[in-house]
TrEMBL record:
It comes from Pyrus ussuriensis x Pyrus communis. Residues 7-142 form the Bet v I/Major latex protein domain. Transmembrane segments: none annotated. This is Major allergen Pru ar 1-like. GO terms for cellular component: cytoplasm; nucleus. GO terms for molecular function: abscisic acid binding; protein phosphatase inhibitor activity; signaling receptor activity. GO terms for biological process: abscisic acid-activated signaling pathway; defense response.
Amino acid sequence: MSSISSRQEFTSPVAADRLFKALITDSDNLIPKLMPTAIKSIEIIHGDGGVGSIKQINFAEYTLDVENLVCKYPLVEGDVLEGKIKSISYEVSFQASPNGGCTCKMMSEYDAAGDLEINEEEIRGGKERAMGMYKIVEAYLFESPGAYE
Protein backbone atom coordinates (compact mmCIF):
# COMPACT_ATOMS: atom_id res chain seq x y z
CA MET A 1 0.00 0.00 0.00
CA SER A 2 1.35 3.43 -0.89
CA SER A 3 0.65 6.78 0.68
CA ILE A 4 1.04 10.35 -0.56
CA SER A 5 0.69 13.66 1.27
CA SER A 6 -0.31 17.00 -0.18
CA ARG A 7 -0.34 20.51 1.28
CA GLN A 8 -2.15 23.62 0.08
CA GLU A 9 -2.18 27.13 1.44
CA PHE A 10 -4.09 30.24 0.45
CA THR A 11 -4.64 33.67 1.88
CA SER A 12 -8.02 35.32 2.25
CA PRO A 13 -9.22 38.84 2.99
CA VAL A 14 -11.79 37.28 5.38
CA ALA A 15 -10.83 37.03 9.08
CA ALA A 16 -9.71 33.58 10.25
CA ASP A 17 -12.46 33.12 12.85
CA ARG A 18 -15.23 34.01 10.35
CA LEU A 19 -13.90 31.67 7.64
CA PHE A 20 -13.44 28.85 10.19
CA LYS A 21 -17.03 29.27 11.49
CA ALA A 22 -18.50 29.31 7.98
CA LEU A 23 -16.43 26.43 6.55
CA ILE A 24 -16.13 24.21 9.61
CA THR A 25 -18.45 24.77 12.58
CA ASP A 26 -21.53 25.90 10.61
CA SER A 27 -20.80 24.10 7.34
CA ASP A 28 -23.84 21.86 7.75
CA ASN A 29 -26.06 24.96 7.44
CA LEU A 30 -24.10 27.21 5.07
CA ILE A 31 -22.53 24.86 2.50
CA PRO A 32 -25.84 23.33 1.29
CA LYS A 33 -27.29 26.86 0.91
CA LEU A 34 -24.35 28.13 -1.14
CA MET A 35 -23.78 24.97 -3.21
CA PRO A 36 -27.10 23.10 -3.39
CA THR A 37 -26.14 21.22 -6.55
CA ALA A 38 -22.86 19.99 -5.05
CA ILE A 39 -24.01 19.25 -1.49
CA LYS A 40 -27.71 18.77 -0.99
CA SER A 41 -27.57 18.43 2.80
CA ILE A 42 -25.35 17.80 5.75
CA GLU A 43 -27.02 16.09 8.67
CA ILE A 44 -25.69 15.44 12.15
CA ILE A 45 -26.10 11.69 12.67
CA HIS A 46 -24.63 11.56 16.17
CA GLY A 47 -23.72 14.24 18.70
CA ASP A 48 -24.27 17.98 18.80
CA GLY A 49 -21.93 19.00 15.98
CA GLY A 50 -18.86 19.27 18.21
CA VAL A 51 -15.97 16.90 18.87
CA GLY A 52 -16.97 13.26 18.41
CA SER A 53 -19.97 14.10 16.24
CA ILE A 54 -20.68 12.29 13.00
CA LYS A 55 -22.04 14.21 10.02
CA GLN A 56 -23.54 12.58 6.95
CA ILE A 57 -21.52 14.10 4.11
CA ASN A 58 -18.42 12.88 2.28
CA PHE A 59 -16.56 12.69 5.56
CA ALA A 60 -17.60 11.03 8.81
CA GLU A 61 -15.96 11.65 12.18
CA TYR A 62 -13.71 14.64 12.68
CA THR A 63 -11.60 16.35 15.33
CA LEU A 64 -12.51 19.95 15.94
CA ASP A 65 -10.26 22.42 17.79
CA VAL A 66 -12.38 25.60 17.79
CA GLU A 67 -9.92 27.54 19.97
CA ASN A 68 -7.02 27.00 17.54
CA LEU A 69 -9.22 27.00 14.37
CA VAL A 70 -8.19 23.48 13.29
CA CYS A 71 -10.32 20.65 11.87
CA LYS A 72 -9.10 17.11 11.11
CA TYR A 73 -11.27 14.53 9.38
CA PRO A 74 -11.04 11.31 7.36
CA LEU A 75 -12.85 10.34 4.17
CA VAL A 76 -13.28 6.58 4.27
CA GLU A 77 -16.24 5.95 1.97
CA GLY A 78 -17.69 7.54 -1.13
CA ASP A 79 -17.51 7.80 -4.89
CA VAL A 80 -14.61 10.26 -4.77
CA LEU A 81 -12.29 7.41 -3.71
CA GLU A 82 -13.00 5.56 -6.99
CA GLY A 83 -11.77 2.23 -5.61
CA LYS A 84 -8.11 3.31 -5.88
CA ILE A 85 -7.92 5.14 -2.58
CA LYS A 86 -8.55 3.39 0.75
CA SER A 87 -8.91 6.65 2.70
CA ILE A 88 -7.99 10.31 2.79
CA SER A 89 -7.08 12.19 5.98
CA TYR A 90 -7.51 15.96 5.98
CA GLU A 91 -6.27 18.71 8.29
CA VAL A 92 -7.47 22.29 7.77
CA SER A 93 -6.21 25.21 9.85
CA PHE A 94 -6.92 28.94 9.80
CA GLN A 95 -4.41 31.54 11.03
CA ALA A 96 -5.06 35.25 11.38
CA SER A 97 -3.04 37.61 9.17
CA PRO A 98 -1.97 41.10 10.17
CA ASN A 99 -4.23 42.66 7.49
CA GLY A 100 -7.41 41.28 9.11
CA GLY A 101 -7.66 38.31 6.73
CA CYS A 102 -6.24 34.85 7.24
CA THR A 103 -4.14 32.05 5.84
CA CYS A 104 -5.78 28.67 5.39
CA LYS A 105 -3.55 25.60 5.34
CA MET A 106 -4.87 22.27 4.09
CA MET A 107 -3.00 18.99 4.38
CA SER A 108 -4.30 15.80 2.77
CA GLU A 109 -2.89 12.30 3.10
CA TYR A 110 -4.05 9.68 0.61
CA ASP A 111 -3.74 5.94 1.31
CA ALA A 112 -3.94 3.66 -1.71
CA ALA A 113 -6.17 0.60 -1.79
CA GLY A 114 -4.17 -2.61 -1.95
CA ASP A 115 -1.06 -2.40 -4.14
CA LEU A 116 -2.33 0.49 -6.24
CA GLU A 117 -0.18 3.61 -6.63
CA ILE A 118 -1.45 7.19 -6.26
CA ASN A 119 0.17 10.16 -7.98
CA GLU A 120 -0.34 13.93 -7.79
CA GLU A 121 -2.14 14.04 -11.14
CA GLU A 122 -4.88 11.75 -9.82
CA ILE A 123 -5.60 13.89 -6.76
CA ARG A 124 -5.48 17.29 -8.49
CA GLY A 125 -9.22 17.25 -9.30
CA GLY A 126 -10.16 16.75 -5.64
CA LYS A 127 -7.90 19.60 -4.58
CA GLU A 128 -9.48 21.87 -7.20
CA ARG A 129 -13.01 20.98 -6.02
CA ALA A 130 -12.07 21.70 -2.41
CA MET A 131 -10.55 25.05 -3.38
CA GLY A 132 -13.72 25.87 -5.33
CA MET A 133 -15.82 25.30 -2.21
CA TYR A 134 -13.54 27.53 -0.13
CA LYS A 135 -13.70 30.31 -2.72
CA ILE A 136 -17.53 30.19 -2.80
CA VAL A 137 -17.70 30.52 1.00
CA GLU A 138 -15.04 33.25 0.96
CA ALA A 139 -17.03 35.24 -1.63
CA TYR A 140 -20.20 34.87 0.45
CA LEU A 141 -18.43 36.13 3.59
CA PHE A 142 -16.79 39.00 1.73
CA GLU A 143 -20.19 40.09 0.33
CA SER A 144 -21.92 39.57 3.71
CA PRO A 145 -19.72 41.47 6.19
CA GLY A 146 -22.03 40.83 9.18
CA ALA A 147 -22.24 37.06 8.67
CA TYR A 148 -20.42 34.86 11.20
CA GLU A 149 -19.17 37.77 13.32
